[in-house]
Amino acid sequence: MFLKLASKSLIHRKGSVILTTLALTISMLVMFGVEHIREQAKTSFSSSVSGVDLIVGARTGELNLLLYSVFRMGKPTNNMRWESYNNLKQNSLLKWSIPISLGDSHQGYRVLGTTTDYFDYFSYGDKQYLTFVEGSKLNNLFDVVIGSTIAQKLHYKVGDTLTLSHGIGRTSFTNHKNTPFRIVGILNPTGTPVDQTLHVTLQGLEVVHLPEPERQKYAANNQLTLDDYSELKPSSITAVMIGLKSRIRVFQLQRAINTDNNEPLTAILPGAALSQLWQTLSIAENTLRLVSGLVIISTLFGLSAMLLASIRERRQEIKLIRMIGASPFFIYWLIEVEALLITLISTLFSIVLLTVGLALSKNYLLTQYGLSIDLNVLTINTLSVIGVLLLLTILAAVPPSFMAFREANRS
Q1: What is the pLDDT of residues 62-80, one digit of tens each?
Q2: Over 95-139, what HEC string results?
Q3: Do 196 and 318 fall into the same domain?
Q4: What share of the chain is helix, strand, coil (3-state, %, to 5)?
Q5: Same-domain check for residues 112 and 162
Q6: In the listed set 268, 294, 318, which residue is the last one of a domain according to the structure?
Q7: Which terminus of the chain is more solvent-facing, meaning fewer CB atoms within 10 Å of its CB: N or C?
Q8: pTM for the complete prediction?
Q9: Where are the alpha helices (DSSP H) in 229-314?
């Protein structure tokens, strides 16, 4: 009976109810959108690298090393020597190691120099390894494997050639035009920075920075396999990703690397560095949540004001309901149910709109920002927020409900 009377009353006052529902829907859309994208961004960042026990680079801050080695953000303050990598590689605690070298780009996309071990051991998400849409991993000196976003945005396919540029900007005045690279593989989408990265060999990256005569020599004879270019060793690399035979020894190795006297190096645990990143961003996160909360509260005040104004217009309705035997408490809870109905309808609309919006923008967020967004908005966190909103709605409806209660007592 409550629902029937409340719904008919809302339909009778559909003009003001629609405006209030629309305002509340937009407010909830903002709140749910901020919460969902915030959680998904954390998940996406955390899934960018998995199975890596340590990342080692030249002495720098933990966050800086994590950002440029994993997320391709910023640039290293210094490189680590190749000899240091070789010494580290000989450590008996290591199961595998992946050297990476950054510093070049192609049309604004980062170039990563590495070895074939990268495609065998690098993983993301829940220990998912890299797979190919077509082609295969690096084999020759001037091979390049590109991420899915690059293939899609630049319309590249296996067999195409491209040239690298010095630096990381979209516009570069130093292009390695005389040493083109041939695309031999395109990776499946990962929802990580890998999608926006070009992967080349360390040897190939070394050649493009040689003097012109030496470059031409290698460019003219580029059909040999990587094993035929053992003389091409970089003097330095950007960082090393390490997997251990036993994770129990991770702190022992980290301490040994950080205190090594041969070269000042920094070894970080990716998970710990990510936690530090979230702590750094917590102020911005809390600010967004506060703004969303204030928008919701202001809209609930508007809901309360709308119901309060309607009580004066509904005195005859209240008298009629009292005449058929309804108690003042019945009138009180009728107004509360009306408020809850408006909130529930707004919640449903906001969730539908958010789901549709995320579905339409999913590919854009993946290609432009590397965010893989789950379309399932109804998470435990969202349900708890809805519960709080319903509780706030009951509180916001107390003034109009109490006023209706008083009117009922006078009747």
Answers
A1: 888 988 888 888 778 789 9
A2: EEEEEEEEEEEECCEEEEEECCHHHHHCEECCCEECCEEEECCCC
A3: no
A4: 55, 15, 25
A5: yes
A6: 268
A7: N
A8: 0.74
A9: 250-258, 270-313
